Amino acid sequence: MPFHRYTSNNSGAAAVEFALIAPLFFLTLLSLVAYGIYFSAAHSVQQLAADAARTAVAGLNETERETLVADFVNRSTMNHALIDKTRLSLQVQADPSNPNQFTVSLSYDASNLPIFNLFTYAMPEKQIRRFATVRVGGI
Hints:
The chain has helices at 2-7, 13-56, 62-75, 115-118, and strands at residues 88-94, 101-109, 127-135. By secondary structure, it is α+β, with helices and mostly antiparallel strands. A three-stranded antiparallel β-sheet has the order 1-2-3, covered by helices on one side. Helix 2 crosses helix 3.
């Protein structure tokens, strides 16, 4: 009879279940936040590449396009708290297979994002590379 008293007592079950589930829940929640930060930075770099490529369409030659892209990136009003323009490198080049197109490539060193200091598992690359290809002279 005394054994039955212990098997029917559920007063600590919620605490035990919370102790088992909470670490996994918080790990999942913080991982979502971390990847959200990374994807936000990657999207900002992609948008900057697309906008810079649209700006460079006005250039008459490759040198002028490079100047336009560099000027656009330097004067960009990109309002992303975690993007540092000094860690951004750019390249403008004509498409070797199609002389009517050129590509603006941006590479961002994302190693200063807080997610790389907080987590050690299944992390994305620390280098975000994005590009935009534009046809010379528009459509």
